[in-house]
Amino acid sequence: MSRIGKKPITVPAGVKVAIDPHAGSIRIEGPKGTLNQRLRPEVKVVWTDSEKEIVCTIDAADAEDKQVRAYWGLTRALIAKMVKGVTEGYEKKLEVVGVGWNAKLQGMNLVLNVGYADPVVMPIPAGVKVEVAGAIVTVSGPDAQAVGQFASAMRAKRKPEPYKGKGVKYVDETITRKQGKAFGS
Description:
Outer Surface Protein A, domain 3; 13 strands; elongated; three-stranded antiparallel beta sheet; four-stranded antiparallel beta sheet; 2 domains
């Protein structure tokens, strides 16, 4: 049995939950935004308004199927991340390291000057908020997947290199530095 799937998800006050069994989706609204998620048909999701809990279950016949048990735990984890996202939100901080390298906002685009001939323009997806303070870029929003995807795409534009440490890196990331080539004696 799924150890994660069995746990009920406690919903804090101020969060609205709507489950549509016909469409097979769940909608969660909170102070940080609204998130929707399609549900697997093998997993049943029940919202008890009196106990303020969301419970995921599967049929007893499907309990032996390893794939269904995996969907059970996955569904519970995705819903728990949605509840956390609409209440607390998610945030990733990145740092642009390099002489003359910077990031700036232009409307709904993030413009990176990271050593290429032309600046790299990245459109900011809906539901994601980007703030630039000097060399630190903060990506935040209620959807963990969207925040992580945009931060990863930003880092991929110029990954940090090990010799001088230049590039776009996460703030808490450590770059293992290499010595470089040694010249004649």
